[in-house]
Write a structure and sequence with these properties.
about 75% helix, mainly alpha, 2 domains, rod-shaped
Length: about 280
């Protein structure tokens, strides 16, 4: 009983091969079939059709056909394995890209923190430079006792010396001595032009000592006692930053938005905008 012939393009090829068997070179026909008809079902159909035709040929031709068909199947298996490897490789690359994106996000956050720290440090250095430029030579910066008290609270020179002595200790990292000096200055010269800066650096010291609630109150006094001072936007920004550090996002946003809306052109406003983007 005659088998049902294969269908489609490969079927037509097989029928053509059967009708013109003697005029077609198998060495060319079979590789074309291998690349153009890549399914294993078609290979089986071809094997059956050619086996039937090969019955009329010698044994050598049959072995040649069988060998070629086996190579075709081997090539198909190899292609399947390589396709699986390609899929696995794509999945690995996707995972690596996600890891890289996560690392970039972490680096961006760290960069923002470093930039804020540098900005705060720059503010301190600039303020110190201005104070040192206006100050005269101090007799004894290491000893704060008696500075300002001998001349009385109305002596401008004594007030300058007290403030500069406090700043020297602050810059040296002697925060305890600097804190006492700023407290003394504010007690004796509460209306002096340097009082807002004294209050600001006193709050800064409290933050360094991790007395965050006291630092918030001290920074807030800058805005309450000296609302027209240049230190006000910096103090309000520092309050927002401390609340952010404590995880109190609502209070942080309140003070940061106050800086942005009230002092939009200040350096503190730029820092506040950046911090608001991070906590929202």
């Amino acid at each position: 009983m005659r088998k049902t012939p294969p269908t489609g393009f490969c079927s037509a090829f097989v029928r053509g091969l059967g009708s013109q068997w003697r005029g077609v070179s198998l060495a060319l026909a079979l590789p074309v079939f291998a690349w153009g008809c890549a399914t294993k079902g078609d290979v089986r159909d071809l094997r059956e059709a050619l086996t039937e035709q090969a019955g009329q040929q010698d044994a050598r031709m049959a072995r040649l056909i069988e060998g070629l068909l086996s190579e075709i199947e081997a090539l198909q298996d190899t292609l399947e394995i390589q396709s699986g490897m390609v899929v696995d490789t794509r999945g690995g690359i996707a995972r690596e890209l996600r890891d890289i994106q996560d690392h970039l996000s972490q680096l961006t956050q760290l960069t923002g923190q470093v930039q804020r720290s540098l900005a705060l440090l720059s503010q301190r250095i600039e303020a110190d430079r201005e104070r040192v430029a206006r100050a005269g030579p101090l007799q004894s910066p290491d000893s704060l006792q008696g500075v300002g008290s001998a001349a009385g609270p109305q002596d401008p020179a004594a007030a300058e010396e007290t403030y500069q002595a406090a700043m020297i200790q602050f810059n040296r990292g002697s925060v305890n001595t600097a804190r006492r000096a700023f407290e003394s200055f504010l007690a004796e010269y509460p209306d002096h032009r340097l009082a807002p800066s004294s209050q600001f650096f006193l709050a800064d010291i409290l933050e360094q000592e991790n007395r965050l609630d006291d630092a918030i109150e001290a920074f807030l006094r800058v805005a309450q006692l000296y609302p027209a001072a240049d230190r006000v936007p910096q103090a309000l920004y520092r309050i927002g930053a401390i609340y952010s550090l404590q995880g109190n996002v609502d209070q942080a946003e309140t003070y940061l938005e106050r800086v942005v809306n009230t002092y939009p052109d200040s350096g503190a406003a730029e820092l506040a905008r950046e911090l608001l983007r991070e906590i929202r």
